[in-house]
Amino acid sequence: MSEHLPVLQVIVPLLAAPFVAFLRGREVAWWLTLVITGVTFAMSLALYAHVQDTGETLIYQMGGWAAPLGIVYVIDAASALVLPIVSGIGFIVTLAARYLVGAEIDGRDHPLFYTAWLLTIAGMLGQITTGDAFNIFVFLEISSLSAYALVAMGAGRDRRALPAAFNYLILGTVGATFYVIGLGLLYMLTGTLNLADLSVRLAEVEATRAVYTAMAFIALGLFLKMALFPLHFWLVPAYSFAPSAVSALMAATATKVSVYVLVRLLFGVFGVSFFGVDSGVGLVLLTLGITGAFVGTLAAIVETDLKKLFAQSSIAQLGYMAIGIGLFTPAGLAAAFIHLFNHALMKGALFLAIGTIAAQAGRASMTTIEGAGRQIPMTMTAILFGGLALIGVPLTAGFISKLYLIRALLESDFWLLAALTFMSSALALAYVWKIIEAAWLKPRPEDAPTLHETPMMWIPAWLLVIATLGFGILASPLIEGATAAALVFFGGAS
Amino acid sequence: MQDDPVMRVIAKVLIPSVMLFALYVQFHGDYGPGGGFQAGVIFAAAFILNATIFGLNRGRHAWPARANLLAICLGVLLYGGTGVATMLLGENFLNYNALSDDPIAGQHLGILLVELGVGITVAAVMVSLFFTFAGRLTHIRLMRKTDTAEPDTAQQEGLGNE
Asked: How many CB atoms lie within 10 A of CB A201?
């Protein structure tokens, strides 16, 4: 069966979804989802181990048709690195969903909730695995459409989830449409949709205006999907009004997958030699990245709602990934992959911890957590560690991210940008300190609702916190993986 | 519209022929233009016509919501199940050659099953989209009646004023 792993990775959650839709009762649906996400995670790890050990690229031909005629699934060092992030976060967030979804979603809706949940995960895994540009679009829509539904399910608690989901739907669809328009142009020019084949054929086509137009459409569509500043306005309401479990899943994975697809298209199809920083896209990514880092951080500082606060900080963190990609060097791309991995861990931990507060108190704001440090110590400590990792304090994974990003910037002689990156990460201290102050230094108000925590509620968040600390101390496996992933796109040229 | 005899008679003639045509598009898709998606949409159009002429309630009666969910899932599972079957028979996912000793017969059988899955799901999704939106009408009328009581809720939903 092991040769079928690349396709099983996607179809196990995809085909489990219709079964879950038929289950009655909340417990069964959750158990089945947990088992499926667990199996998916195990398969991702097996694929990662295989690619890491042998260094070979796995190619799976759908229906036995070889590329470029057929659709192939490709597992190389890059996709093998991103797969376990998505499926691993999916598994841990599902573990937490038992409490979060139980508290926030009407019991009758649970089977359909978990159906959409599995479809989102399957869609994201499909985008990572597939080697076909149009197939990426199909999976993009599978994951996005179910994500819109999941966000809208927050309406049971707060009606504002509906406009948030609708905005997300409109902007997400615009992004996907732009991607397809770009793809259509490329197909017209080359007559192929296979990613590997596209890169070969594009090298033969002259750098005409049509190619640049296609590139602009694809890049813009994916910027929207990855919520790069200034196309990030859908993200904050969508994350903050969605059910807590959905916020955690999406904050940790959804935008990361779009970042990965952008890398696949920019580096894997157009190629580093086709255009570089000088021709524009790199410069756009660097400028928008650093502006986003500042805007997101500053907006987070003035925000009082915790979900919105960390959603704003996601904008900033995505800015750092954009900077890494925009450098167009192996070191920069490796830094982007490292940050993609680490940020998924810390944002997952943060949103899970905040979710348990929001599930009890309705919303998690600064006033809700006033003096909560003693009432729910495990949850608040998880938020503390997540916050420290966001700043980039040594011994957390965030430090490794920032270290490699700044090192890559210095390597390319972007001194000013390195200084600005350092400054904006240091600014993150302001919003993390605000939380520390509220949770530990202020007394709990008399009339504040009593918050409680059980191990079932904080264990999932702590699993991710431990991973954050673990990858901060023993970073070498991740760095090796990310470097190998970056080299996929540079053809060992470095 | 069910009081109009012209509508009623035409609908009664049209509905079965539309369904028959859908089946033709479905199963002739191997040889000519057609296939699961088109057939599914045409098949669903027959149900939608039925509901527009004879009313939502009778339409719902002809295609209950529970059966609809079953059909949506069944189609997907038929498609995926064909793929899994080829995998269990030792070939790649969706390699229909595995379905029969003769590869050409296998390809025929495989595409037939997969397209049938597509047809079932598309028809069911179309019908459920129609009923979901048409079903909002009674909901909206209900909201209008309570408008005077709670103008705020109606406003929030964007249904406040015409």
From this structure: 17
